[in-house]
Amino acid sequence: ASAIFALLPTKFNESILPGPHSDSLTFSDPELTVHKHEFIPFLLNFLRDQSSQALTHGPATPAKTPSRPRPSASSRGFPERRASRSGGGGSRGTSRVQLFSPTPSPGSESGLGHVSSPSFPASWSPASRPSGSERRPSQRISLGDYVLSPPELQKGRRRSGNGAGRHAGGGRAAHHADDNGRRTGRGGGTNEHVSPPSAGQLNFNNLEDFPPVGSSPVTPTPSSPHRGNKPSRRINPTPVSTDRSHSKPKMCFTSTPFTQAPSPPPLVLERPDTRVTAVSPHSLMEERELLKREKLGSKVTPDQQTACPETSKVTLASDLDVLAELYCACISENLVPNVFLELFFEKVHNCVYFAVKVLENQYHLLAHLDKCTLRLLAENERVASFSPRLRDRLSQAQDTSTAKVLSPSVSTFIHSVPFQPATDNRSNFSSDKAFHTFKKQRDIFYELLREWEDFHKEPGWIFDMALGSRIRGIMSQLTAAGNHSHFARLFLKQLVQMCKGPRVSGSSGDTPDADLLVMLGADGLGRLKRLEERLIQPHGVGGPCPPPSFPGHQEFFRDFLCQLNQHLQDSLCQQLLQLDEQVRIPPDPPRTSRQDEKQRFASVLLLARLLAKFLGFISFLPYQTTEKPSREIQEAAVALRSKSVPVLDVCGVLRNSMKHRRTILTVPWLVEFLSMLDFTGPLLLNYRVVLGTLCLLYRKMTLGRCSETSYLNRLLIVSVLGWLFQVDSSLRHAFIEENSVCGVSIQDGIPLVDQQLLYTCCPFLDEFRKLLAAFVSGSSAKGGGIVRKITPTSAEPQDAAGGNGERSQQKLQADLEQAFFHNQPPSLRRTVEFVAERVGSNAVKHMKATFVSELVEKGDKMLRDGLESPKANPSKLNESICAQLCEAGLDALSRATRFCCEKSPEAIRILLPDETSPAVLTTSENITIHLATEKACGWLSANITALIRREWKCRYERVTKTLTADSRKHGRKGHFTISQLNRIFSKDLLSVAVGPRMDEELPSGSRLQTLFRNVRDTLVLLFVVTLNITPPPLPPFF
Amino acid sequence: HALCMVSDATGCGKERQGHMKMKLSRAEYKEIVRWTEQLRPTRQLVSNDIFLPFSPQKRTKRTISRHHAPDVIESHYQRYEKQTQRFILLKSSKTFLLRQLYCVLHRICLFCFIFLSTASKSVLNSMLKEPSLIPDQTLAKNVYQCTVNDCCYGPLVDCIKHAIGHEHEVLLCDKLREKNLSFLDENQLRAKGYDKTPDIILEVPVAVEGHIVHWIESKASFGDDHSHRTYLNEQFWSYWNRFGPGLVIYWYGFIGELDCQRDRGILLKDCFPTDIVVLGRAAQQD
């Protein structure tokens, strides 16, 4: 901290401190702590601001303007469409908001109240959370800078405070002049931070540590005013927010519609003090944006020479180093709200230098990203030129990175919820009428689902108009017949069935070429998906911190839910808690089941997240408002709502989870739940507490200091929490709020998270890769980049019939297996899986106990036989025997298979009901055999060789020891150590050996012989029994 | 007589098994319909494989309501009253307006009868099935004649259709047993309390042409646009909603274009499928 303060002018400190503090209610801390509190937000803001300069070179090149809009539109397309469909105007406030409040005020009153952004979208849509404006502050600048036409830009950049006057001119030229003038006035040099601020409010102006070296002509205006008025805003709470919300709509990187409805001024003015807290640290975002901007910028404007950073142009490298170090420390200590945001870098020259430095420093974080990202990063020419070392490390990391992110294993057909007589037949209903009503409801539900699949992407199709009346019909029938719980169960099961998977497949309605895909086989399908991914990549950029969304089929369920239902909430809640509690994370599972454990965990986690999101959605739906309610209303709401029992005892859940060491499961789903909070939600006591706890947890979760094994566990928690804090400003504030909740302890436990799961839970991590990819494609336009060719392959029917035939057969078998369980009672599946697991495990144990030991015995004999021959070379013999044993060891697979075939049916037959029909029984047996064999052979084929080697090595050493011991007794030279002698020789022998005191003590020859014989026997015995003692040479007198 | 006809119909079953494939394109179907419309329906038409898909039944549905209008019924009745000969209904229907609509005539008769007596609808229906219950001898004879000669509607035709349907269900079950596929039939399902029951549910699903099949519905008719749409809404989707993807066999063929829901879980065939993949069997062969 002292380092950075040294860098900064004293003026700055003065200016930044009074602002927020005067506003925050109570600050009993001494000023020093205030400084500390302030420091991080400030640092982040500072960096962001500085780097934001770099992006401003964009607008100068008109050439790019035409190309820009398209990606922007497309990237916006999805959320926007969704939003509008669901009745929202799709408008997402784009007001520029600070990352988090600079006031880490424990006085939560100010903190809480101020957090949310001053402006809100005109209409709320479930898709875009109401606070979308704040949730995506990060989107705000980058694109817009290129897209905006000058007047817009100006408007966008306009700031209150002194900025207003400056921009009144309206033309960009004016901007330039103004800015340049200022700049030159300040001296245009490098060390400007000492220079006094040009205006009282513009304290930041003197912080020009990064003068726009190469790009000064192009690096225009907005940055400095923009920078400048952050503090000004703090001090001078004029309706800046209006300004922002109006001004920046097009600057969103993604998903901010152009047609943003201006937020009504009153709203903005409502709480002018908001700004006070919502000030500084959005620099994080900017930092991040920088990267995007640069990439995008250079992509679109290949001719823009000035944007190319060069190492040689870096100035003040040492200062930058200090900054970078400091910054990294912040990241490492989880002092920033979202660790991943910090990975985005940019800025011409200095920025790049800085960014690369940071990246280098935070290498461990990068190393856990997926392979593709790493490759792109390693191939990034800027990284290469600025830090070859980082590039090399990245290239290395690629090899260890295991994640294949784009491998969605989406089942090709969607199951319905099976009819189970045990729960669904007439006896489960109160009357015939109820039974038949539910029959109809089930059919209508699916009819609606199919209709939604078919039409929801068509323009002009509105959920409520098309399906609303029928849904209401179902609901009213429910009331009539009292079928709520049945329907809730159906709904929930279907939801889980369709949406649990990692990537939501496109609705089956838009896969007319499924036949083609089938022809291509599973592999071809994967490749096709990847291709699709690449082709739509630029469109798919959702920003580093996308707002919570309901992708794919989830949308249907969400819209359906708008006719909400308490019963559904009940079953959601119950199922969720059950799920959370039933999972016992074993402290150290046997290695054989690690992978299973991981899979099971991933499945539970994904399910819990899905359920939690929907629970959060319906729980807070009644409270959702399009705009932030006024303070009075909010206070009233808090008072009112604190009386009612919250749907979920979040604090208790979290506490329990920490106690039982399963935060790795609980936190991700809790985050999903909390991301659905309405405006007032975070003010309620229990949510406040839980947010505070999460925040503490987050800070303690430092990634730098944990073992490699649990790194991904932590990374998952850190990134979901980071997303939560980032996505909603009202939650973000919690990050700052010092909470007195103590006892947050972190347990790492066993590695449960892999990259696949990490990326599934945090799809926004993928943005990084997309960005880099976009950069590559952009720079390739310049001719310097790497063009990845998409090699066209044709599907050959011949080949499909042959090579792929087998593969598709396997897939079909797997599908059939799943289908078999579909219409059977769930207990059947559990039984089969359980038995398979046990039998498989037993098979492995059995092999270890019988087969392997037999093999070792065999090897023992071979070794002994081999050593008999005079020319025997023990080590060669050892190797050859080992090789033979390993080869013979492969037989274990067939033996294990036989074991499974024998044991599985017995167990299944005993465990399934007697009434099970023969066909079902046989199939269950076969599936069990198959699963058990797969498990056993999977383990054995991977480990049998190592196992045999290990066992054999043991035996070999033992045998050789025995043999050497045997041979030694025939007299070899050497010596004993005293201690060993002591152990072996009895006292009397020693006395004899060392020297008798009198003649009578001299042992007779026969007695000596007996003694020696005893000693020999003892020695041999000793070597055999205690294997670890290397047989020492015998003493000379032997 | 009726029994004879039924056995007649089932007798043809044997031949049908090896019958030609009847998957038509929509255009072909329309072309054939255009020609068969000119044919006068006979009982043979109903029980004959070739014409069954194009039975006039579907066409006439559209015109039935026309005869239900009170004034039309009144005029029919008048006509009936005037001619007190036997079999007048049959004759008159041959000569004018109703051509194929014998059964509609039944109804008209009975409507007429309602004018005279005040019988309930169920009583009327039972009278249709059993004309001897009709007190008026002449009318009873007329109705009987109509029943026997009607080739589109009426108890006899229903009986034939039912027999054909049943025959194909039996055929399906035989084929399944032959293939060693274990299944539950409709009755077993109903006993278990299922609310919707396809003809059979496979205890162990199979894959037909690469598509998973949980249930099979047998339809001893031709799948045209109208009937398929109705079946989809009332039956097939309901089955899917409960049991997952399945197979529909239209033994008398169907319009090829209708088989477009394969990926969504409804597969159409016009015969018992040959390309069946069974769980585990392939794996065991390996």
Automatic annotation (TrEMBL), chain A:
GO biological process: chromatin organization
InterPro entries the record matches: Codanin-1, Codanin-1_C
Short name of one Pfam family: Codanin-1_C
Region feature (Disordered): 53-270
GO CC annotation: nucleus
Residue stretches of biased makeup (Polar residues): 97-108
Biased composition regions of type Gly residues, renumbered to the chain: 162-172
Extent of Low complexity compositional bias: 59-76, 116-131
Residue ranges of every copy of the Codanin-1 C-terminal domain listed in the record: 750-864
PANTHER family associated with the record: CODANIN-1
UniProt protein name: Codanin 1
Automatic annotation (TrEMBL), chain B:
Pfam families: TPD
InterPro entries: CDIN1
GO cellular component assignments: cytoplasm; nucleus
Subcellular location: Cytoplasm; Nucleus
Domain of life (superkingdom): Eukaryota
Keywords of the record: Cytoplasm, Nucleus
Primary residence: cytoplasm
GO BP field: erythrocyte differentiation
Protein's UniProt name: CDAN1-interacting nuclease 1
The species this protein was found in: Hippocampus comes (Tiger tail seahorse)
